[in-house]
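job 3f2a | input accepted
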Amino acid sequence: MSLESLKSRLPDYARDLTLNLDAAIGSSDLPVQRLWGTVLSTAIASRSAVVLRELAPEAKAVLSPEAYRAAKTTASVMALNNVFFRTRHLLSDKEYGSLRAGLRMNVLGNPGVDRVDFEFWAFAVSAVNGCGLCLDAHESALRRAGVEREVVQEAFKIAAVIQAVATTLDAEAALAE
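job 3f2a | predicted structure (177 res):
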């Protein structure tokens, strides 16, 4: 199971997705840990069993056990944060923003990997989950850490491609039933 296997599963009408997988992942200049942590965390966030089954083994093969766990942890904590903070932000009653969250998020203090990698993964997962508040927070952290806009954009490019592949393959599976 691999990126190549995933590309071979895409239908002909989604040829652009194959090309985008090559560009965003296959030809990426990102460091391996940052790239494959982003791939794994966004594959989890996509909620597509097919995408996750194809990409997780390749991620596991190139990531350290700590980074593999941290990418999964990032997807998990951001699933919580993205729903909570997106909802808080979307509510007309802004008083919710002053209330204590009361949610456990200990991993934010020690994510188990370099802080920039964690922020990059959290930013990419927030793109999949559509939380503007979280996107702004993680983009700001990345920029404060000296990450250039072009590099930050790579995170949401990978997120967009993974999500589009997930949507396409899941639709094809549903239509085949």
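job 3f2a | The CA atoms of residues 30 and 151 lie 8 Å apart.
job 3f2a | closed
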